Structure formats: C-alpha cells, structure tokens
Amino acid sequence: MKNCVIIGGGIVGLSSAYYLAKAGHKVTIIDRTDMTNGCSFGNAGMIVPSHLIPFAQPGMMAQGIKWMFDSKSPFYVQPRFSMDLFKWGLKFYRTATASHVEKSMPVLRDISLLSKELYQDWAKQTDEFLYQEKGLLMLYKSDKVGEEIIHEGKEAQSMGLEVDFLSKDQIPSVETGVETTAVGAVHYKSDAHLSPNKLFAFLLTELDKLGVEISKQTEVLDFKDNRNAITEVITNKGTFATDEVIIATGAWSPELAKKLGISISLLPGKGYSFTLKDQFQKPVVPSILCEGKVAVTPIGNDLRFGGTMEITHTKDTKINMKRLEGILSTIHSFYPNLQFEDPKEKDIWFGFRPCTATGLPIICRSDRHSNVILATGHAMMGLSLAPATGKLVEELVDNKKASIDLEVLHY
Questions:
Q1: Rounded Cα gap, residues 383 and 41, in angstroms
Q2: What is the pLDDT of residue 311?
Q3: Which pLDDT score, from 0 to 100, does residue 265 have?
Q4: Looking at residues 238-254, what average pLDDT do you find?
Q5: Which of the four, 259, 289, 309, 337, has the lowest number of CB atoms within 10 Å?
Q6: Which CATH superfamily is domain 3-397 in?
Q7: Burial of 215 by CB count in 10 Å (0-12 exposed, 13-18 middle, 19+ buried)?
Q8: Contact in structure between 135 and 188 (CB atoms under 8 Å)
Q9: Which residues, listed in sequence order, are joined to residue 193 by a DSSP beta bridge?
Q10: Could you tell me which residues come within 8 angstroms of residue 243 by beta carbon, excluding any fewer than 6 positions away?
Q11: In 104-181, which ranges are E strands?
C-alpha cells in the first residue's frame, strides 16, 4: 500500500483517487478551491470516442488566425506579450502535422473506448448520473463544412467506430425533439452523455466509502525533495507525507509543475456554457453545431449549451458577451423554432480547459522525480477521458502494464 497525494479535485483527480483507493492505496486529495465550480461542473457532459483527431492538426493555425479577427468566432487567442504563449504557439505550429494526427488517432480511440467501458461499469452501479448512450450528431449547414465532417466520420469508421451519415431528410428520424436547419449530419453511435454535476456527487460518495480524505481550500506552497523523490507536499494547511504525487490540476498545472522544475506547454482555453432549466422543448440527442462549434446536451429535464475556445490565462475571469453572442447566433440559426430566453451574464458559467500544444493529454511519470505522475492537459475531453486517466494513473503507481500505449501522452 502506498500513500498517494492527488493535487487537484476535478474529475480527473477524483477518478484517479477512485482507482487508487480501489487498488488498496491510502489516498488524499488536495484542492485549492471548495470544489464546487471547476471545469467538471459546467461542461457539456459528453463522452466522445468520436473525437479522434487532436486539436493540433494541419490547417488549425491558419483557421485560428482567421477567427482571431471575428469577436464572435468559436476560437480566439487573446493577444498579449507572453513567453508562455509564444512557446505554446511555436510548439503547436510544429506539432500540427499529418504524421502527428496519424500517430495520435489510435491512442485517442483507445483511451476513449477504455473510458466508455469504465463509465458503463459505473452506470451498472447506479443510474443517478443519467448515463445514456444516444450517440452524438455532428450537424452542419454548408456543403463545405459537410465535406470536412464526412471525411472525419469516414476516418472514424476506418478506425472501427460505428458511424451513420445522414441526409437532411434522415435527420428527423434520429433527432425527434426539435427541427433543425442542418443540411446533413454524421451520427457517431459510439458516443454517450451524462450529468456532470450528478457524476461528481456520485464519485464523492464513492470516495467517502473508500476512505479517501479530501482537503479543500488547500494551496500547495512547495515540495520536499529527497534524492529526486518527493517525500512531503507543503501547503497552507500543513504538510502531507507522500509516496506518490499525482498532479491533476488542469489549467493550473504549469505553475505547480514549475515548483518541481518541470516545464509543461499548456495554456487555459476559456469556454462558456449555460443551462436552460426544465426545458420542455429540446433536442433528444447530444449534438455539435459544426459551423459555430457549439455543444448541445439534453441532461435530464435540462438543456445545456457550451462553446468557444479562448486561449488566455487563469486570471482572465471576465465573461466576453461577444463570444456568448456567437454561441446564441449559432443556436438560433440551427434551431429557429427552439423557444427560450437568452441568458443574462449572471447565468453564464465559464471554465478553463487545460490545452496542451500537442492537443493530447499528458499522462506520464515525471522525468525529474521518480514518484511524480502528471495527469492533465485533457482540453475539452476531461470528463470524457477521466475514468481511463484514473485507471492509467493507478497502473503507473502499481507499475503495471498500461492498458493503452502512453508513449505520445508525454509533456
């Protein structure tokens, strides 16, 4: 049995704690917040084996520059003088190649399908987090975007995923809840969705049963190092002795890693969401509105919309209403008959997605410390990949053969 300290109480940290505690380890979670409003709460709740292509891909840099001049676009890099931003951009540019995509796709498929299996295991224990397998509709309104989405669908099909290609007339046979102006869709039948808030509550209950200790509003100040192994985590609430340290702090990972002498090329991507409570009229299948990159998820009686990727910094806590206008414009364009009141600023949630320059998560041991594991950089797929990440962390701690090839998931 090892004494494991997990820094970060988001969905990746909780999933890691679950599998470590199940394996018989003593686990403590440290989080700098009260754990009520992280990225695990306001996201779209999608489990997406369909997302096989990493964010760092050919053409993304050029598209990003074009979008930068549109205040309502789905992707934006906040211009500022920052060495971190410069280094991230340079690494992104060098990484966004066809060979990188080819190498990444099998890994993203394998980790996603492992995660889905683990979610199915959890859903057998309870139906309280509203897990459903209705797939994901990629809805598009133009032939140009459609070509790209269909190409991606065929790539996914060749990788073994179940995919249907729908004409405009076929969409209503799948999306029975609302009419849409989409001219076509790709239906990824492998995808699923759930309620993030209820999942979080389920995991906290399970961790309590497993004896996991959680120290909230606890800030890590430093680490005690003995021969390249961390023996203590020093915080504002005392010192935690440890045999293994797991860094699962999402967008805040680079500043914590710096304390360990580790450099991670990772920036926060601010995303927004809002939820329509008790929405009677709503889509029944989770969807991505492709032209505006807006995620749509029915969650129980509610309906959640999410979108935008604003590469920024963690002190940027302002809500940019222009970006919200872009989300709303996309929604009204795809669902002209969907009746709802546009949300006010106070109703908008935002969170920082941890975006690596490779577009891939980081799940590996540190090169500098024998007992430090990094589990971060999942961008928009934190919830989707959390159970698999937690399982892989447990395998690293126990020196087991990893369930998937981790070679490209390095910082």
A1: 9
A2: 87
A3: 94
A4: 97
A5: 337
A6: FAD/NAD(P)-binding domain (3.50.50.60)
A7: middle
A8: yes
A9: 46, 132
A10: 2, 3, 4, 371
A11: 136-140, 163-167
